[in-house]
Amino acid sequence: MANILHRVGIKTTSIEAVYRALTSRNQLAAWWTTDTKGEGDKVGNIVAFRFNTDGFDMKVTKLDAPHHVEWEVVAGPAEWVGTTITFDLKQDGDYVILLFQHLNWREPVEFMHHCSTKWAIFLLSLKKLVETGKGEPFPDDVKIDNWN
Amino acid sequence: MANILHRVGIKTTSIEAVYRALTSRNQLAAWWTTDTKGEGDKVGNIVAFRFNTDGFDMKVTKLDAPHHVEWEVVAGPAEWVGTTITFDLKQDGDYVILLFQHLNWREPVEFMHHCSTKWAIFLLSLKKLVETGKGEPFPDDVKIDNWN
């Protein structure tokens, strides 16, 4: 099994604001993809993220406000289905530290390399959203390669 | 063992230009850190990268121009020493695709999460350098958290 890990620090004393960015539809749409359907604030809910025709359906499998959010990928590319995504939040001085994990990829395929870099881009978009009020969600996300 | 993976696509038909960005001191200093000493174009060479007082010494362990560069970390933070960094390049249409791996971390510690996100930032700086002639090396790199 292979995992993607990231860490970003968001300059805010409101850990609740970061938790909202991970659980409310409007906020998710403001940093990941504008085409987001469903609310992420209840265990069992499905949130659907689309990037033009492709995308992912996430089942909210664990919530511990305002510290922990966990999703299971229930639909999307074969490489993603069955993987788990976790967000852990903690206050550290002037920053809320976000530890991100996308766990249990079956193989470290080239697509996983792409997704790892792309997660960094989107987590920095989340940071920007909370710090400035404006993120860079798809389709206005930073492009990284020929797969985008 | 845990690994960091990334993929960036650099819009150029010169795979040699990307290879140079990974092997010449001047070019490494133009995307990773301005404080770079040593040339990376010969197996056995040591290249020293510094970020103020901290940094890494890399031994060039494998070169296959213009497709493959491999380093072993011989000095630096305990978590890095003994790990391996590889860069694989291939032309794909208008892009040179760079597959990056930082292999064999002993534990997926919080510092590894940070380094994963930071590698994304620096690989995008490399992309910018080759595409535009100007990267964003330390100390002008994009800051991601309270560890920077």
Task: State the CATH architecture of chain A.
Answer: 2-Layer Sandwich
pLDDT < 50 runs, ≥5 residues of chain A: none
- In whole angstroms, the N-to-C terminal distance of chain A is 25 Å
Number of helices of chain A: 3
Radius of gyration of chain A equals 14 Å
Shape of chain A: globular
Most strands sheet of chain A? 7 strands, antiparallel
In terms of structural class, how would the helical and strand content of chain A be classed?
Answer: alpha+beta
- CATH fold assignment of chain A: Alpha-D-Glucose-1,6-Bisphosphate, Chain A, domain 4
Tell me which oligomeric state these chains represent.
homodimer
Largest sheet: spatial strand order of chain A: 1-7-6-5-4-3-2
- Please give the number of β-strands of chain A: 7
Question: Mean pLDDT across all residues of chain A, rounded?
Answer: 98
Protein name (chains A, B): SRPBCC domain-containing protein
Domain Activator of Hsp90 ATPase homologue 1/2-like C-terminal (chains A, B): 13-131
Organism (chains A, B): Chitinophaga caseinilytica
Family (chains A, B): Belongs to the AHA1 family.
Comma- or semicolon-separated keywords:
homodimer; 148 residues; alpha+beta; Alpha-D-Glucose-1,6-Bisphosphate, Chain A, domain 4; seven-stranded antiparallel beta sheet; ASHA1/2-like_C (chains A, B); SRPBCC domain-containing protein (chains A, B); START-like_dom_sf (chains A, B)
